[in-house]
Amino acid sequence: MAERDDEEREFDLRWADGAEHKEPSARARMLAARWKENPPGPVPFRGDPDHVGSPRGSSWVSTVIVLGCVAAVIVLLGYINFRVP
C-alpha cells in the first residue's frame, strides 16, 4: 500500500514539475502588487555594518544579561537543593 502511495506521489511531482506555467508564491504576488504602487529604492549589495542592527556594544550587554540570568537560576536551584533534606 505504501509503495502505491509513493508511486502516485512521484507521478504528481513529475506532473507538477512539468507544468508549462508556474504560479508565483503568495509572497511574490504580494510584493509585486506593493512594488507596482510604490517601488523600492536602490539597496547596496552589502549594507553598511555601522547601521545594521542595534548599536555595537548592545550584543555584549545582552550576552551578559543572559549569562547572568542562567547563573542566577543555577545558584537558586543549588540553594533550593541544599535546603531540602
Write the layout of secondary structure elements.
Blueprint: H1 2-17, H2 26-37, H3 58-83
Q: How would you describe this structure to a colleague?
A:
The radius of gyration is 27 Å and the shape is flat. It starts with a helix and ends with a helix. It has a domain at 57-85. The longest helix has 26 residues, at 58-83. The mean pLDDT is 78. 0% of the residues are buried. The protein has helices at 2-17, 26-37, 58-83. With 85 residues, it is mainly alpha-helical. It has three helices and no strands. Helices cover 64% and strands 0% of the residues.
List segments where confidence is low: pLDDT < 50 over at least 5 consecutive residues: none
Which structural class fits the helix and strand makeup?
Answer: mainly alpha
Total number of helices: 3
Number of strands: 0
Give the strand content.
under 5%
Gross morphology is flat
Mean pLDDT score: 78
Could you state the order of secondary-structure elements as H and E? Answer: HHH
The quaternary organization reads as single chain
The main pleated sheet reads as: none
Please compute the radius of gyration using only Cα atoms. 27 Å
Estimate the helix proportion, in percent. 55-70%
- Distance between the terminal alpha carbons, to the nearest Å? 58 Å
Q: What distinguishing features does this structure have?
A:
85 residues, mainly alpha, single chain, 3 helices
Task: Describe the structure in brief.
Helices cover 64% and strands 0% of the residues.
